[in-house]
Design brief:
There is one protein chain. By secondary structure, this protein is mainly alpha-helical. 74% of the residues lie in helices and 0% in strands. It has 7 helices and no strands. 22% of the residues are buried.
């Protein structure tokens, strides 16, 4: 009788559900998480704008340090292009997955990981050659807080995508319409890219 009861359990009718109710819980959780992350970055950007508006000179003169010639706009612009391109390779990989091309999907995911890692390496190299530290005036503090916070998010994004790659290769997971962890990781990665474009424009160019 018990087995008959289980067999007769009604299927969930998703057709009448709202789009929010039909959303995968993991994807919905990532969307909510990103909402909270937007507020975190907004707080840091607010601190940056307040510090800049109250400064007599921006960027400031660093006492006891070699003359500061400004942030490296060109190399960081190239680095920005690398990160933006990684969003396109991830999008392309997802499109290949939807078309049933698993090898194309894996290539897109691997390329995204390589581009993201390249971005972090260039960012770390920039830190090594800037000539100032977080302790050097409020400019140094907010600069390293903003870019460091973003770099941490890039690292987390890489770990999430690496987890997806491992599951896709070793366990042959993810199919079109059944790839919630990948979709959540993709949303996070695109969010990180958009934040950096805004950060680059505000901190490096304006």
């Amino acid at each position: 009788m018990a087995s008959d009861a289980h067999a007769a359990a009604p299927a969930i009718d998703r057709a009448g559900m709202s789009p929010l109710a039909r959303m995968n819980p993991g994807v919905l959780g990532m969307a909510i998480f990103i909402g909270s992350e937007i507020m975190v970055f907004a707080a840091f950007f607010t601190a940056y704008f307040i510090a800049r508006s109250n400064a007599a000179q921006w960027p400031p003169v660093f006492e006891g340090l070699p003359e500061f010639e400004g942030l490296p706009k060109l190399i960081t612009g190239v680095n920005t292009a690398i990160l933006v391109f990684s969003s396109f390779t991830l999008w392309w990989g997802e499109k290949r997955l939807a078309a049933g091309d698993r090898q194309g999907f894996l290539r897109g995911l691997i390329m995204t990981l390589l581009l993201g890692a390249t971005f972090l390496i260039i960012q770390i190299n920039e830190y090594a050659h800037l000539g100032f530290t977080p302790q050097d005036t409020i400019f140094g503090t907010v600069f390293y807080c903003l870019t460091g916070l973003h770099g941490l998010h890039v690292l987390v994004g890489l770990l999430v995508l690496l987890f997806c790659l491992n599951r896709a290769r070793k366990q042959n997971e993810f199919r079109h319409g059944a790839a919630a962890p990948l979709v959540a990781g993709s949303i996070y990665w695109h969010f990180v890219d958009v934040v950096w474009v805004f950060l680059y424009a505000v901190v490096y160019l304006i």
